[in-house]
Design a protein that fits this description.
Strand order of the largest sheet: 1-2
Keywords: Membrane, Transmembrane, Transmembrane helix
Structural class: mainly alpha
Number of helices: 24
Shape: globular
Protein name: Tripartite tricarboxylate transporter permease
InterPro entries: DUF112_TM
Oligomer: single chain
Radius of gyration: 22 Å
């Protein structure tokens, strides 16, 4: 099938519609791009791979970008990745320049998205071609490196690593298949549940529970807040926007987009780190750092270019190595799984049309996001007034129906949704890290296969250190990530601790 045959009116409609729905999810505090992708994931089964990815990528781009609306108008980040947008966006709103701040953030979001898309297009195929040479040993070490990076960049390194390995442990529940080097017997299953867990927990109900139901439970615990009325939303219509505000900010935009893309390539780090790093760099290199936090447009540019730079960067490790860059791209693996496609080093070479369709979908999603938000921002600003007590029952219903139908009507998948929804809600209270957990859950079976196959082929643990120069480099990177995390944690210890 040629690319021109894929780009149909349905394909384009799904991108634009997904982008709009993503903006709605991102603009309502408590609802995120990850939640939008999780809720809509079951819908992709009947759409086919390319159309399904078009919908999900539109949701991804729209969800990340929509977070700037409440961040600027209410001082409440719509998504974690827009937290630094509040620092200068909300002060501008209080100064009567809300609409100007929104348009600055929208343009910066477009720049960040396009820069990261260009890096994705140029870098992912080269990395995938290099990764094709990897044997089981290097593949296992890549996963081990990803887990240590996730742990090192978590709030607490030990908890981050523990969360990742807990995900791996739960992913191993079920039959130890002979084709994977096992004995064909079931393992890690509590008595009485052998029938239900013979094949382990199904991936998609786990994802929907962790990112859909858990968020609803968290909001339900907080109660129903007083809704925002349209009269309280001050967009500052009299504020004038001009592209001249970007004069002298090209370096800031490109640097922030580059930081966001780089952070996205690191597994499990997330958009909040991208925006914080971009914002802090913009302030460091600014000639007027004292203006930051008081309504400085450069701060909004850095934050939004950084968090939208994440969108393309997070797809680089997913499409070239099979390792998701963040929790949202981890959900994209579910879409590939539904269509029977495995992502990894061979994906781009074996599926060139799908790869090109993803690039086109990302490009159109960024342009659609810009067009919808820039020209209709006064109307989109009213999204923040939509009451969540109306939205959440609808989303909960979609989660349950999606979990039930995804494997042709298995009731245990609904129980899986509830179990992991409760787990995701409790995990935050126990300070466990959800992103390392879910990436460990996804990569666990592959890590086991690569480890066992390596031992079957070479017969000794020493092969993990002596197989090739790539293995040596991977161990150096693993040690560096752990050492760096320890050094950073010691720098943050209070003097009187």
């Amino acid at each position: 099938m040629e690319l021109a045959e894929i780009i149909t009116p349905l394909f384009l409609s799904l991108i634009v519609g997904g982008t709009f729905v993503g903006i709605v999810f991102g603009a309502i505090p408590g609802m995120t791009a990850t939640m939008a992708v999780a809720v809509c994931l079951p819908l992709t089964y009947s759409l086919g791979l390319e159309n399904g990815l078009a919908l999900l990528l539109g949701l991804y781009v729209g969800g990340i970008s929509g977070g700037l609306v409440p961040a600027i108008l209410l001082g409440i980040p719509g998504t974690p990745s827009s937290i630094t947008t509040t620092f200068d966006g909300y002060p501008m709103t209080r100064q009567g320049e809300g609409e100007k701040a929104l348009r600055i953030g929208i343009v910066a979001s477009l720049v960040g998205g396009l820069v990261s898309l260009a890096i994705l297009y140029l870098f992912a195929p080269a990395l995938a071609e290099f990764a094709i040479r990897f044997s089981y040993v290097e593949k296992f070490l890549i996963i081990l490196f990803a887990l240590t990076v996730m742990g090192a960049l978590s709030n607490n390194m030990l908890i981050g690593i523990f969360s990742g390995f807990l995900g791996i442990f739960i992913s191993l529940i079920g039959t130890y298949d002979i084709s994977d080097g096992g004995n064909g017997e079931i393992r890690l299953i509590p008595p009485g549940l052998e029938y239900w867990l013979e094949s382990g927990f199904s991936l998609l109900p786990v994802l929907i529970g962790l990112f859909g139901l858990a968020a609803i439970l968290d909001e339900a615990e907080a109660g129903v807040p007083k809704g925002q009325s349209a009269e309280n939303i001050k967009t500052g219509r009299r504020s004038t926007f001009s592209f001249a505000v970007f004069r002298g900010q090209i370096v800031n935009l490109l640097r922030s987009a580059g930081i966001g893309t780089f952070v996205g390539i690191l597994p499990g780090v997330g958009g909040s780190a991208a925006s914080i790093l971009s914002y802090s760099n913009a302030r460091t290199f600014s000639r007027n750092p004292e203006r930051f936090g008081k309504g400085e447009p450069a701060g909004i540019m850095a934050s939004e270019a950084g968090n939208n730079g994440l969108t393309g960067g997070a797809l680089v490790p997913l499409l070239s190595l099979g390792i998701p860059g963040d929790s949202t791209t981890a959900l994209l693996i579910g879409a590939f799984t539904l269509q029977g496609i495995q992502v990894g080093p061979l994906f781009i070479g074996n599926n060139p049309v799908t790869w090109e369709a993803m690039i086109v979908a990302m490009l159109i999603a960024n342009l659609a996001m810009f067009a919808m938000m820039y020209f209709a921002i006064r109307y989109l600003a009213r999204i923040v007034t939509v009451p969540k007590h109306i939205l959440f029952p609808v989303i909960l219903m979609m989660c349950v129906i999606g979990a039930y139908t995804i494997n042709y009507g298995i009731m245990f998948d609904v129980w899986t949704l509830l179990i992991f929804g409760l787990f995701g809600w409790l995990a935050v209270k126990l300070r466990l890290e959800i992103a390392p957990f879910i990436i460990g859950f996804i990569l666990g079976p592959s890590a086991e296969i690569y480890f066992v196959k390596s031992l079957e082929s070479f017969g000794s643990l020493s092969i993990f250190f002596t197989k090739s120069w790539i293995a040596v480099v991977m161990w150096i990177l693993i040690a560096a990530s752990i050492a760096g995390s320890i050094a950073l944690s010691r720098r943050h210890v209070p003097p009187d601790a």
